[in-house]
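Structure ticket #2291
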Amino acid sequence: MMLKVVVENQEFAIQIPDAVLNNGEDFFRKMDQDMDKGWLMSREWVENPSRLQRCQIAADKIADALSTHNETLAHLMAGYIVTRMPRVTEVHIDTEGEMSETQLIEAAS
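Resolution: structure written out below.
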């Protein structure tokens, strides 16, 4: 599966390995447990992030992974997004300091 990621007008095609999709649920569940405690999204503390907000958090981590060339982290975060929001095919990551402005685009029906 592929997830298109746009960061500052640069496009990246993240090919998510089948192993991440088939075997990543324990890792994804741990991420959810961590976010259940609340999360600082940019400058705002979110007590109980929604599914969309959780995917925006994961997208922010993709931006970090791309900037540090951490392919494994990029794959895991992309895998998290597509398992939690299966219709998402494209992510536009906000880099202006407002994580909540990151857009997740779903496939047309």
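Closing remark: The radius of gyration is 13 Å.
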